[in-house]
Amino acid sequence: MSLKLFALTLALAHPSAHRGAHGDAVPRVVAQRLQLVLRANEVTVTYTAEVPQARVYADARERGEPVDARWLGELRGNLRARWNGVALELVEEAAPDAFREGDDGFFEFELRYRAPLPGEGGTLALSNGNFPYETSYFATEVRVSGDLVVTESTLVKFRDGRLREDGHDVWLKDESAREPSVTVRPAAFWERVSESRPLPERMVGTIPLPWWMYLAMVPALVGLAFLGRALGSRVHR
Description:
Elements: H1 3-13, E1 17-19, E2 25-27, E3 31-38, E4 42-52, H2 53-63, H3 67-75, E5 79-83, E6 86-87, E7 91-93, E8 99-101, E9 106-116, E10 122-128, E11 137-144, E12 148-153, E13 156-159, E14 162-166, E15 181-186, E16 197-198, H4 211-236
Parallel strand pairs: 3-11
Antiparallel strand pairs: 1-2, 3-4, 4-9, 5-6, 5-10, 7-9, 8-9, 10-15, 11-16, 12-15, 13-14
């Protein structure tokens, strides 16, 4: 891998790091990531903020507080979730590595939440209130369990049965990415899979029928044809 390609790979991994003339990373802005796992009766949310180390150290010197306690305390509680327009109570869970050193001059702060979902289908809307007055990069990754299908989302756009725009797990600077939403419904038996899959793969109409269903359709269609002929002959008698 050439040096130029290596630098490009790192820049894609950390979009908020500006590359200097010599390929060194110069962190500029915060990158924020939401990772959601939707199941039939609950949602888990993992929030990660990548903050330039220089900014964290400067803040720690000014305030004289431990880095992890200060920043995690500031980030905690600024995430809101609504299910069909009703506020959900996000219960925080311990993250095993809540404060860690990332790549390219960043510290990573991680918070995890869990909330029950009332009802089998509906719309989950999230609102990220961290760093509200700053330009940031945002990425949202959604995984949906096998018993749910996504019918609509702000992260992907389908037209004419095809995926036209895919903002799933992509770094965006658009402020609308602060408030992603996902609408789900219970999956029909032919749409169910045995594990959770990323959002685009669980969108309605994008999952092909299993091969055995196509085979089952053949005798069913033949049977319907014979039934139609039999009923038609009775009518004519």
